[in-house]
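The instructor's notes for this session suggest beginning with a concrete chain rather than abstract definitions. Hand out the sequence below and ask the class to guess, before any prediction is shown, which regions might be ordered.
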Amino acid sequence: CPEHTPPPNPEWERGGGGSGIAVQSEDKSAAHLLDRLRRSRQRLEQQRRRIARQRPLTSIGRLYGTLAHELRGPLAYISATAQYVHTKLGEDPTLGTLTAGIQMKVERLLRLVDALGTLASPTAGRRCAGTLQDTVNRVLALASDRCGQQKVRVVRSMPAAAVALFADHEQLGAMLSMLVTNALDAMPAGGILTLRVESHLRQVRVHVGDTGPGIPPGSRRKIFRPFFSTKSDASGLSLVVCKHWIECQGGRLRFASPVAPGRGGTNFTIVMPHAQTGSMRSRGADVQTTHPDR
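After discussion, reveal the predicted structure:
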């Protein structure tokens, strides 16, 4: 049998360069595919963990929703009755104090009921495009009287251009109010309340900071547990509700305490997906300081 001689290959004659290029291209494609698979797996794992965290609160939320529905009516009736009695007997200092105390306690219970309702339906509400600056300004306007009473100086830092956010801005304002209330609770004798808005390509961040003593080390792992609180007169639900609502909107709630080594203070950060157009992207920041004595 005569020896078979393969036909000449131009690529082989040039030193096999074409084959090497093909192998390198395949290696790069495989590496790119593996990287995409790895990132997809990480996203799936993050989603699984988020669902696992939300499942217990979802089950509890159904129970809370039923309780909130049953309690809201009787509490509103008690509050209205106490207010009526207070107008009739307000001249009596003892009875006036008692009826005012009833109203105060009922208002606290109503706030608790509202928190339970938010846990039951965290995605309820009207989502629309709005500016984050307007929401932050409304929250600070509601807190201005208390800031003045406590001699708390307010520092706000927000982009000069409008920051668009697709969300239920009424609920978002309620979540910010919870964080501002917690910050003011930490500064009964004065301090600095900071609200800073940051606009990035795919997300926006709202920082709520205080100069209080900070969260004790033993409590930092517990602050998002239902009914846990470092305050004796608190329900222990505000941070739970806030975190649960933000995560159901696709965002995150983070905190740092102390804000720097050797210092006190606490900073909570709300991270939300961005909804903006190119013309609304922030390009600057305005820093405003509000003094309580002005």
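Then share the key points. Confidence is low (pLDDT under 50) at residues 11-15, 276-284. Residues 42 and 48 are 10 Å apart (CA to CA).
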